[in-house]
Task: structure prediction
Amino acid sequence: MTSSDPPRPLLHWLDPLTDAARIRLLYLLDSQELSVGEMASVLQLPQSTVSRHLKRLFDSGWIVRRSEGTAAMYRRASSNLDPTARQLWNLAQQDCAHDAQCQEDAHRACEVIAQRRVDSRRFFGQVGGEWTELRKELFGDVLSAEGLLGLLDPDWVVADLGCGTGMTAAILAPWVHALEAVDREPAMLDAARRRLEGIDNVRFHECDLSALSLSDASVDAAMLSLVLHHVPEPQAVIAEAARILKPGGRLMVLDMVEHDRESYRDTMGHLHFGFSEATVSGWADACGLSRVRLQRLRPSPEATGPSLFAATLVK
Result:
């Protein structure tokens, strides 16, 4: 039933409720989604009887059904109910709340749900092969990464060192108190300003990464994303990043692992062919930072470049 459909007459909704078993079923399905077998177990009725009652409720619009693998799952309809049905159900629900049989059903349902959780493979065994694609279809790629930014402290000031056109800054800014966007190239900063127009907690700085215009101990976190292979002296940049970090502040370095693609020097101006774990550790030691972790990132199947790593250094 849609919002444009005319309201159904009272008897349409009332007639399916004249059987106590169907009211018990609706009360169960008001707060959870159950299969036929689970409802038969809770109500202690044959599955054939439960199926017959479910068909009546489904045909009249009281319940909805969806497929989960080979199973059919049922719950009480919500958006399909017109005002008449909602009033009827409010009355029935109040009665069920004081009915001993309905309350016993509710206790048994809790046990059925608990048993379902014990076998956690039930759902994922049925749809596991489709789960990743289903999530991507529903929510896109944003689910896998951007939502995790909610773990950031909203009081932080973060520096995006070598911000480029502001793509990362645009993702980070809504989650922190302030973002310092730094780049030495005016054209890059102009593009970043256009991208970040309307975001009022971003400050832009045109300066070299080895001579930052930011004050000592002024940021809670900083990042160098695919920057260091372009700079002549990466350690000098790390030292400047360490200077602007508050005590306990974190620097994240995202860059390429060591590789042998010398053509990158000519085609993209790379000065370094990635970095080893030992090199990153050397930077940390020289700049008074502790290396918390270095993690090689999973390569994307469609990517054509070298693998990446993420390193976390702490002041």
